Amino acid sequence: MKIGFLATGGLRVCDRRLVSLGMTMPSIMQRAQTIASLPSLGLLYLAAVTPPGHELQYWESKPEPSNANQNDEARRSAPMPRVPPEAFACDLVAISILTAQAFEAYHMADQLRNAGVKVAFGGLHASVLVDEALQHADFVIVGEGENVWPELVQAVERGTEQRLWKGADYGVVDVRRLPVPRYDLLGDRPYNRFTVQTSRGCPWRCDFCASNVMLGLPYRKRDPEHVRLDVEALIKLYRRPFIEFADDNTFVDKEWGKQLCRAIAPLRVQWFTETDISVADDPGLLVEMRAAGCRQVLIGFESPNPQPLRGVEMRSDFKARRFERSREAIARVQAHGIAVNACFVLGLDGHGPDVFDNVFQFVNETQPFDVQITVLTPFPGTPLFDRLLAEKRILQPNRWDLCTLFDVNFVPKNMTPEQLRDGLYWLAEKLYNEPTVQSRQRRFMERLFETRAAQKIPQLSIWT
Predict the structure, then answer these.
(1) How buried is residue 254: exposed, middle or buried, by Cβ count under 10 Å (0-12/13-18/19+)?
(2) Is 238 left (phi over 0), alpha (psi -120 to 50) or beta?
């Protein structure tokens, strides 16, 4: 069979003012372009486990430039991404759905099915809203797909009528046995980062986090030597690839983290990942990370003060308990030459109108290299979604295109939606104007040089 893998990636924002702000602030656009350019690792894994004897292709849909809208009528009339013409020649096309791109995925799937192409949906959104997804696809995979996909492909060849395929029926995926993703299918597309997975899941269960809660699977780590094989595969295909580890929380296990760093250090690649502030607890790990090529970590602080964090993490209140060490953690990580991207989620129940100024003050005091601000987003399938829906605080239920992390679609507890939206505009302008960005990054370099001079460490660029 001819099998296609169609990714619906890229950053989406419906709020027109935020779109215009992004167009005038290079740091926002730089991160947006990075996110938009990341290939779909999940689809590349499916391609890797596809039984032999099939012709495989990979594509990515891109949103139309005018696809920013604020109401149902505009959404229905907005241009949708085009289906790659080659996809109509396939027998089967797999589409992985992210919630913000769900309507686009449904539109493309309908076109393919009308042309006689079988369509299989997977991903977090399809796993939660199975009945909705089945209206637009021949097959829906619920949960992880690597164990299911080979069976589905063989069943399609036999003409199966089974439409729902549950990952749980095929066992938890053993991440230690994952093959190298089919990076070769990416061709010569101009990516600026490539995704590699070192672990799956996160032990901290935040009520707003889609990736952990939806799958409900344990935290699992890959063999560092297998991660090295993935990176080596990328090096063979691309000149000096920059790696983004596609993990929710890479360095939960510090000793394993050191093994990972030692495995990839000889490859001399540069990389970025997400982790939590406990990474700062182990100076030896930070030394190993820097030596292995780590250039930046994204750490979810979520709030500029601890009270709103209470209850967000459903197991041990990890973020609230560790908040008082936040400033120390940023300083310690950056002293090792690793830039911190401090992430905040605006609109938590404990946030009032003063949160925006508090974030700005926190950033000024701690001076992380970069900052990411997002809006609390009720993704379907999360405890947050269920709670806000029951409290009638979701403004437009089923508006999946507003699940972008930047569009406001709920009523905050201690401010109005308008106050949250206006505060986001104000904070974005304060944080992302070019002089402020340059000042933070210059201060990072100055502190790094001061620390290295005091410790008599040779001065190196953060990027070398």
Answers:
(1) middle
(2) beta
**CA nearest neighbour of 252 among 322, 203, 198:** 203
Q: How far apart are CA 182 and CA 176, in angstroms?
A: 17
Nearest-angstrom CA–CA distance, 376 and 344: 9
Q: What pLDDT, in 10s, does the model give residues 201-217?
A: 777 667 677 666 555 67
CA distance linking residue 259 with residue 221, whole number of Å: 12
Beta bridge partners of 299: 275, 342
Element (H, E) at 300: strand 294-302
**Cα end-to-end span (Å), the chain:** 45
What is the rounded CA–CA span in Å between residue 320 and residue 313? Answer: 8
Residues lower than pLDDT 70 in the chain: 10, 19-37, 62-79, 204-205, 207, 210-216, 313-315, 451-464
Bridge partners of residue 196, in order along the sequence:
245
Beta carbons of 294 and 274 less than 8 angstroms apart = no
Using DSSP's 3-state secondary structure scheme, residue 179 falls into coil
Q: What is the pTM of this model?
A: 0.89
What is the tens place of the pLDDT at every residue in 220-239? Answer: 899 999 999 999 999 999 98
DSSP 204-238: --BTT-HHHHHH----EE--HHHHHHHHHHHHHHS
State the DSSP string of 335-374: HTT-EEEEEEEET-TT--TTHHHHHHHHHHHH--SEEEEE
Report the pLDDT value the prediction gives residue 16, as an integer from 0 to 100: 76
Find the helix or strand (DSSP H, E) in which 56 lies: strand 55-60
- Angle, helices 283-291 vs 326-335, to 10°: value is 40
Q: Which residues contact 158 (CB under 8 A, 6 or more apart)?
A: none
Beta-sheet pairing, 270-275 with 242-245: parallel
Per-residue tokens: 206: 């935040």
Contacts of residue 349, defined as CB under 8 A and 6 or more positions apart, other chains included, come to 308, 412, 413, 414
Q: Are 394 and 378 in contact (CB under 8 A)?
A: yes
Rounded-to-integer distance, Cα 20 and Cα 35, Å: 18
pLDDT tens column, 271-301: 999 999 999 999 999 999 999 999 999 999 9
Tokens for 340, please give them: 């911190």
CA distance to 100, 187, 277, 374, per residue, from 327 (Å): 33, 43, 10, 20
* Dist. CA 396–CA 345, nearest whole Å: 20
- Write down the residue that tokens 């990952």 correspond to: 167
Return the sign of the alpha-carbon dihedral for residues 352, 354, 359, 365.
negative
